[in-house]
Design brief:
The structure holds two protein chains of two kinds. Chain A is built from eleven helices and 13 strands. By secondary structure, chain A is α+β, with helices and mostly antiparallel strands. A four-stranded antiparallel β-sheet of chain A has the order 3-4-5-6. In chain A, strands 7-8-9 form a three-stranded antiparallel β-sheet. In chain A, strands 1-2 form a two-stranded antiparallel ribbon. In chain A, a hairpin with a 5-residue loop joins strand 1 and strand 2. The longest helix of chain A has 60 residues. Classes of the chains: A alpha+beta, B mainly alpha. At the A-B interface, helix 3, helix 9, helix 10 and helix 11 of A face helix 1, helix 2, helix 3 and strand 3 of B.
Chain lengths: 486, 350
């Protein structure tokens, strides 16, 4: 019965058109979602000649996803690094504000030189003591800021790990659904969700995604540690309460393998976790070392050896609690920056004698340089004024020149931090551009475009109309036949 | 924006707003640079060269401080020089009074009073201060170097002179028997016990609290000079000795021959002192000149550091303005393009 076949074909056509229209509205509804891909219904003609929707596919090129994942790992890592460096740099060595160690040391030097020009009166010496206290306060604050940066980074690692564990467990659920339903049902929305989760995971940690059979995927870190394979691997991290200078933090472990923050052969290269670890163990620890060395340099520069230079070297203007001598040059004393202080013996605010700055003897009466006790004695003050610019040996853990003056160290420390910041910031700009381009490329190949969907809708409308028309024509024909028969 | 036909709507919106944000951030930066005349966020722009900025700023501060300190030192040396000039004037007045007195009996009392007032004037000049510093006290700069010779009760200096006189002649200076002192005895006294009073250690014990070594100061990165003088200088000792001879040895009671011995010795001392004073003034003048030249060198260095800093930090105003205008145009273009693209929708046609 040919007319009946025609009716069935037209009904199948209507079915396909309405299925496709439903797809159009799904596409349009998810238009604002950046992870949404365009769904395409693949209509095929079946064995009996009827058309039907065989499967729903996603538009897009898989290679673009990998590029986006890599770029967003790097970009989010650089963002973490840039933020941390900017906070450090602006709080420590903003060249504009005159509160950098360099500027404060410069002011101390000037105050000492003015005091040397008029050693008789206390006023200039008092000003020098005030400048010295500013310096020691700035060094203390610098140490605190570096410790805070490390502490923040440690907390950032903990947050990243929590988020990563949560994302991976969600990933596991979506992935299982895809694997079980794959081939039997439309899993395109789950695939979108899984891609979205991958992008979120990539921001926390650099990953490599390997597709497997039945739509399954495995995730490895960019250093090769398995992060997900059928099940999510557990990631653990224990935050550290005290990260002051010299205190190491814990490593992030994936299945017991160190992946970030610490030493190992499988350290993750990119993503937030790696960047936080770098801020905590590299940048933060270096800034701590720099401030410890500034503090040690100050103790060294102002140390006293007595009028003949033969007494054991003892801390003078700058000292630290429990000092039994001056720490050797070139070796970082962890935590010294936090302890640096102006000696109470010379600080009028602590009941000290301000004249000791001119006369020496802060370390004890035997160390008095001004043997005659003369009010016009300026040799020691001149010596102190020069000491900031005389060469010392500094530890290589400062990452800057090791043989330089205290002022030179302060300048290099500022330059180092801003250089790190500049590098991170331009790297961030570059990576963000790549992310933006990758997103754009994805959107261009896989994104939903309203015009395209509308045009498709018009087309489907026509097809629907044609099929409806066909049915009504067939109906007329059937009616005619039935009337003729009657 | 070329591939509008196939671009995803989500990315189109994000792309346009991100572009606008970037442009606006750049415009803000250009505006800040225009108003401050310096690059915005020098640390971020200069990177490791921030160290140079920091160094130059410290250098600049050091140079200006040294210049300020030099102003103080110049002031002190000026006070020293003025004091020495006054002392010279006193010495010259006294010296010419002595010459008159040797020739004329009538000039005796005037020269004694000139000597007495000269001693007071010398005391006054030597106790000159600058900014709390006794400039003739050497390094012992917080104590007046000399005290009033004619104070009541008599100070250590006057007592020492009286004691030496009694020890030598067995009488006080105002004893009428002073007329009996022979010239030779007076001559021996002046060269011996009296001269010893003005040599160390008696001078330091009785006359002067000053120290021999002067205050020293840095006037440039490497030059250190003496920036005060000492009341222990030979010119002061000789002048004091000469004036005390005339004023406080009972000159008016002496025989004419003895008096001549004293006047001759006083005259010799005064003229030696004048020579020494001239040398000292020359030395101080040299130091003044060195401070002045150090300061003018500092001025040149300061202007150089300013130029150096400017090279690193300053913004070319014309360039920043052009950049700002260009950015404004791009933002306007982006606005109108975005609104055009957003209105291009098939939705409006069906």
């Amino acid at each position: 019965m040919v007319l009946g076949v025609g009716l069935n074909a037209a009904r199948a056509g209507l079915q396909v058109a309405s299925d496709q229209l439903a797809l159009v509205s799904r596409n349009v509804a998810r238009m604002g979602d950046p992870t949404a891909t365009r769904k395409v219904a693949q209509a095929v003609t079946g064995a009996v000649g009827y058309v039907h929707v065989s499967q729903i596919a996603r538009a897009g090129a898989p290679g673009l996803v990998d590029a986006l994942l890599a770029a967003s790992s790097s970009a989010s890592g650089e963002q973490v690094r840039t933020d941390a460096l900017t906070r450090l740099a602006t709080s420590l060595v903003d060249p504009d504000q005159g509160q950098s160690p360099s500027a404060l040391l410069g002011r101390l030097e000037s105050a000492l030189k003015l005091a040397a020009a008029n050693p008789t009166q206390d006023a200039a010496a008092r000003a020098a003591i005030t400048a010295a206290k500013d310096v020691s306060a700035a060094i203390n604050q610098g140490a605190a800021a570096a410790t805070a940066a490390r502490q923040d980074a440690d907390a950032g690692m903990a947050q990243s790990v929590d988020r990563l564990n949560e994302l991976l467990s969600r990933f596991e659920a979506v992935n299982r659904e895809i694997v079980t339903k794959s081939g039997s049902a439309d899993v395109t929305d789950q695939l979108d969700a899984r891609d979205g989760l991958l992008q979120d995971i990539a921001q926390e940690i650099g990953i490599r995604v390997v597709p497997r059979s039945h739509g399954d995927v495995a995730i490895y870190t960019d250093s090769g540690i398995t992060l997900f394979e059928t099940t999510a691997r557990s990631i653990s991290f224990a935050p550290t309460a005290d990260l002051s200078s010299g205190q190491p933090g814990n490593a992030v472990l994936i299945d017991g393998v160190p992946a970030a923050g610490g030493s190992g052969t499988m350290m993750v290269q990119s993503g937030r976790i790696a960047a936080h670890a770098a801020v905590r163990d590299d940048i933060g620890a270096t800034v701590q070392a720099q401030y410890d060395e500034l503090a040690r340099g100050l103790v060294e520069a102002f140390a006293e050896t007595g009028p003949a230079g033969t007494l054991p070297k003892m801390p003078g203007l700058f000292t630290f609690p429990g000092a039994t001598g001056v720490p050797p040059q070139g070796l970082q004393v962890a935590g010294l920056a936090a302890m640096l202080q102006v000696s109470a013996a010379v600080d009028p605010a602590q009941g000290g004698n301000v004249k000791l700055l001119r006369d020496g003897g802060i370390a004890g009466a035997a160390y008095t340089y001004n043997v005659g006790g003369q009010a016009g004695y300026s040799d020691r003050l001149i010596e102190l004024g020069d000491s900031l610019a005389s060469t010392q040996l500094f530890s290589s853990s400062t990452q800057v020149a090791t043989s330089t003056s205290l002022l030179g160290l302060a300048d290099s420390v500022g330059g180092w931090l801003h250089e790190q910041r500049k590098t991170a910031s331009s790297e961030l700009e570059f990576r963000s551009t790549i992310v933006a381009r990758a997103r754009e490329a994805m959107a261009q190949s896989a994104g939903v475009n309203l015009d395209q969907e509308l045009a498709h809708m018009l087309e489907l409308e026509r097809s629907f109309q044609a099929n409806s028309r066909l049915i009504s024509v067939l109906d007329d024909m059937l009616k005619t036949i039935i009337q003729d028969v009657r | 924006m070329a591939a509008i036909s196939s671009i995803g709507a989500a990315s189109l919106n994000v792309g346009a707003s991100e572009l606008l944000l970037t442009l606006k951030a750049d415009l803000n930066k250009a505006q800040r640079e225009l108003s401050s005349g310096r690059i915005d966020d020098p640390g971020l722009t200069l990177g490791y060269r921030t160290a140079e900025v920091l160094r130059i700023r410290v250098d600049d501060l050091r140079l200006s401080t040294t210049r300020d300190a030099n102003a103080l030192i110049t002031g002190r040396l000026d006070v020293v020089q003025a004091g020495l000039s006054d002392v010279t004037e006193v010495a010259e007045g006294y010296s010419s009074a002595l010459l008159t007195a040797r020739d004329s009996e009538n000039a005796l009392l005037p020269v004694i009073s000139t000597a007495r007032s000269g001693i007071s004037a010398l005391n006054d000049r030597l106790n000159a201060t600058h900014d709390g510093v006794f400039v003739f006290a050497g390094q012992n700069s917080d104590a007046p170097p000399t005290s009033d010779y004619f104070a009541e009760p008599p100070g250590a200096a006057r007592q020492a002179v009286a004691a030496a006189f009694v020890a030598a002649f067995g009488m006080t200076q105002d004893d009428p028997a002073v007329a009996t002192i022979p010239p030779a005895a007076m001559s021996a006294f002046l060269a011996g016990p009296f001269a010893d009073l003005f040599a160390d250690p008696a001078w330091g014990q009785n006359w002067s609290a000053a120290s021999d070594d002067n205050m020293t100061s840095r006037i440039s990165s490497s030059e250190t000079i003496e920036t005060s003088a000492s009341a222990n200088h030979t010119s002061v000792r000789k002048l004091t000795a000469s004036m005390v001879m005339v004023a406080d040895l009972g000159l008016d009671g002496m025989s004419a021959e003895t008096r001549r011995v004293v006047l001759n010795a006083a005259s010799a001392g005064a003229s030696e002192s004048l020579g020494d004073l001239a040398r000292l003034r020359g030395e101080v003048g040299d130091r003044q000149a060195r401070v002045t030249s150090a300061s003018s060198r500092l001025d040149i260095q300061i202007s150089f550091t300013k130029t150096e800093l400017g090279k690193l930090e300053d913004v070319d105003a014309a360039e920043a303005a052009t950049r700002a205008i260009g950015l404004l145009q791009r933002i306007e273009a982006a606005y109108s393009l975005t609104s055009r693209i957003m209105s291009l929708s098939l939705l409006n046609a069906i």
